[in-house]
Amino acid sequence: MKAGRYYFDYAASTPVDPEVEKIMRPYWHKIFGNPGALHFFGQEASAAVFKARKSVADILGCKYDELIFTGSATEANNLALRGVVKNIKRQAENSKQPKIIISSIEHDSVLDTAKDLEKEGVEITYLPVSKNGIVDLKKLKELLDERTVLVSVMYANNEVGTVQPIAEISKIIGNFRNLSAYPLFHCDAVQAFNYLDCNVNDLGVDLMTLSSQKIYGPKGVGLLYIRKNPEAPFIKPLITGGGQEFGFRSGTENVPGIAGFAKAMEISEKKRGKEAKRLSELQNYFLAKLKKSIPSARLNGDGRQRLPNNINIYFQNTEAQDLIIKLDLAGFAVSPGAACSARVCKPSHVLKAMGHSDERATHSARITLGRETNKKEIDLLLSALKRLAK
Ligand code: PLP
Known about the structure:
The chain is an alpha/beta fold and 390 residues long. The chain contains 13 helices and 15 strands. The chain has helices at residues 18-24, 26-29, 40-60, 73-90, 108-119, 137-143, 166-177, 200-203, 255-293, 320-329, 349-353, 358-362, 375-388, and strands at 6-7, 67-70, 99-103, 123-127, 148-152, 184-188, 207-211, 222-226, 298-299, 310-314, 332-333, 335-336, 340-341, 344-345, 364-368. The strands form 4 sheets. It has a 7-stranded mixed sheet with strand order 2-8-7-6-5-3-4, with helices on both faces. It has a 4-stranded antiparallel sheet with strand order 9-10-15-12. A two-stranded parallel ribbon has the order 1-11. Helix 4 runs parallel beside helix 5 and helix 9 packs across helix 13. It is globular. The two termini are 29 Å apart. Bound molecules: pyridoxal-5'-phosphate.
């Protein structure tokens, strides 16, 4: 990290682990062939992709051919939602209007994709959350009907870090399904992987999204797990061409990126338990000290059902945008809990969905911790906050 600069935005992106960087190096110059080519150079690259795919499959508890590497988590979420709808619409016997249920606190890559699908005639229903940012399971049972083709609920929220009861949701959907394969269950587990077990069978998901750049891997790689259906695939591809990724996502594979992603996953899984405990202690330390230094500050989202690295705070009488700029000038990288463009912050849709006011939704900041965060950095941030928040 640069001297005098302190990074508290690990939910946005993580630095690449040096071991990951090392494993990627041969794929720039030495092993550079097109994995689709029949010759030695191609086969060498193809073997690297296969090795990475197999290692990821072992970690997630699935088969290697249930994994589709994409260019980002955004692409994987698009493939999940649009791919399922495209598949359903191609089935002649399905004349009913398809319905998708998504939680009201999803990332924009799910939310905006759903809104776009709405323009194509898909009904989108929003699953509400409690004041603590946890989805309402009773409401889910009420919303499920025979037109529901997909339910999408994220594992951990990117703004407030609340962790959703994924296995319970999967049980509810499974009970409703009876003998049908639908509704499918998609889970965006991008923010969860570093701290929570993401075994697809334990979670009971049919589709799951992950991202490399959030787990100390390179940018430009995401993945979608698609449970195999013995009869016919659950999704149709969005990108057609050379038929790579089992026909679900054409385009020459990002060999260095995929190799790096698999290594990042392996390291993150190994570090998971210890790192979750360490960050949870730092999180508690921060909150206890904040309570004394700024008593009016409030934690957004459930205090227990949350990621160990997420601290989302409401600072009364302090515009998040102003605070973030002042903190940045003082050397601290923190994120507003809202989408900002052209220096104007829209109230966070997550905090609004949790029932908070526009004022709270524009006066909250997200502080996310990671592998390089330590107590000293936390103390420095706390002093800066005491100085800069009103
Ligand atoms: N899903 C979640 C929960 C995220 O936090 C993010 C990124 O912040 C994404 C999806 C999209 O990731 P990317 O921008 O890498 O495609």
